[in-house]
Amino acid sequence: MTEADKSIQFQYRSPEIEKMPRNELEALQLSKLKTAVGWALRTPHYGRVLPAAGIKSPDDIRSLADIRKIPFTTKEDLRKGFPYGFVSVPLEDVVRLHASSGTTGTPTTIYYNSADLKRWADYMARCITGAGCTKSDVLQNMISYGLFTGGLGMHSGGEEAGLMVIPSAAGNTSRQFKLMQDYGTTVVHSTPSFLLHVEAKMREEGVSRDSIKLKKAFAGAEPYSEDTRRRIEKLLQIDVYNSYGISEMNGPGVAFECQAKDGMHLWEDGYIGEIVDPKTMEPVKDGETGELILTCLCREATPILRYRTRDLTGFYTEPCKCGRTHRRLRRMTGRTDDMLIINGVNVFPTQIEEVVMGMKEVGNNYLIVLEKEGVLDRLIVKVEVGPDIFVDDSRPMNALKEKIRKTLQTTITVNPRVELHESGSLPISEGKAKRVQDNRPKDI
Ligand code: AMP
Ligand code: ZN
């Protein structure tokens, strides 16, 4: 039975803030926004762009609506500002950095002073406690450590919440089982794709479910569907909580599901979230989907205002059962920049995932390949079958192939070629899954 089925005893780390009335929360946001603008004005980048937009001092922000006077910040701005264009404190006060190399080679780098790290750990701990964990839990952090924020971010939050943290990092699946058995792991942090791999490996290696005490998983860092969540929950018999993080906003701990598992609470005393239409950059109507824009209120060393996350989501309009007043974000459906255009049709990889992961005959991995055939784009969806299905038995195979093809065609209006592969044969990655292989020539 999952937590959602039981009557839940909701837990809070900072109930006075988490359940703060909206008017007080918004007053707190305004005062923190002014502080963040003050920090930003000390950086070379915002020291230039804010005065040009008419914001010369924090007092030029008089209401929360004034946030719209602040220009958006993009990943490109951060790259151009490399290495110190976004730093607002003397470098001797910086105690850590995290960086993501991205695709163009220039890293986007975030610097933290010690107060920043404390605040980040506090938000992260709020997520962990809010997901029902206590000091008696053992957290195995199965995600990359190093420059990526997921490792150290979750690690510090786990310690702050009083859990015992096992810094296992990603990969080495057999060792992960051993750690779970040896130390009685009750909760893991991972990408959803690695969790599916763990489950398949568990069966392959004959690790019995009874030999581990796992109850929960925090899954994030990449988009996944509700079907994938349910699949992991069912196969591993655990509760899976969606975790949203982005390195420009510290990393994990930005928005997280509570025990209700129904949307991710954005910690609005630490981050201001806006949803805009990515074409017009105007706010969408309440509850509608658009691009998430985030302003970091909790980091002095590298303040970032109105960051274009490129993530597509929206806010729930109805309150959560848990009584928190911080609004919830819906599961991300994709990014404005991972949208595929296949013969003129816009397709998000998550739409394909929803179809294949929704079928019980399908295994735990899939790959989207795009090729050019003559002038036309060809979509090939490679799908692993479940472990009980034999690829050389052609009749059920053909039926399954046809079922996937037809369902995809109805959903995305593109007719794909479907290939079935044996369980465990498609490539897996230890970090974020690479679901799309686009082999189309770039200049056509
Ligand atoms: P990074 O800056 O490397 O941490 O990557 C951040 C990006 O990962 C976000 O902008 C999202 O596109 C993606 N991401 C992180 N968590 C989630 C999640 N729970 N659901 C969907 N996408 C996510
Ligand atoms: Zn809630």
Strand content: 15-25%
**Helicity, as a percent range:** 25-40%
Bound molecule kinds, no repeats: adenosine monophosphate, zinc ion
* Overall strand count: 20
Number of helices: 11
Assembly classification:
single chain
The biggest beta sheet reads:
8 strands, mixed
Shape: globular
**End-to-end gap:** 52 Å
Low-confidence sequence ranges: none
- The radius of gyration computed from the alpha-carbon positions, rounded to a whole number of angstroms, is 22 Å
Q: Give the strand line-up of the largest sheet.
A: 4-3-5-6-7-8-9-13
Name some characteristics of this structure.
single chain; 444 residues; alpha/beta; 8-stranded mixed β-sheet; 4-stranded antiparallel β-sheet; 24% strand; binds adenosine monophosphate; binds zinc ion
Strand and helix layout:
Blueprint: H1 15-18, H2 22-41, H3 44-52, H4 75-80, E1 94-100, E2 108-113, H5 114-130, E3 138-141, H6 149-160, E4 164-166, H7 173-183, E5 187-190, H8 192-204, E6 216-220, H9 226-236, E7 239-246, E8 251-257, E9 264-266, E10 271-276, E11 290-296, E12 307-313, E13 328-329, E14 334-335, E15 340-342, E16 345-347, H10 349-357, E17 362-373, E18 376-385, H11 394-412, E19 417-421, E20 436-438
Parallel strand pairs: 3-4, 3-5, 5-6, 6-7, 17-20, 18-19
Antiparallel strand pairs: 1-2, 7-8, 8-9, 9-13, 10-11, 11-12, 12-14, 15-16, 17-18
Bound molecules: adenosine monophosphate and zinc ion (ZN).
Zinc ion binds next to loops.
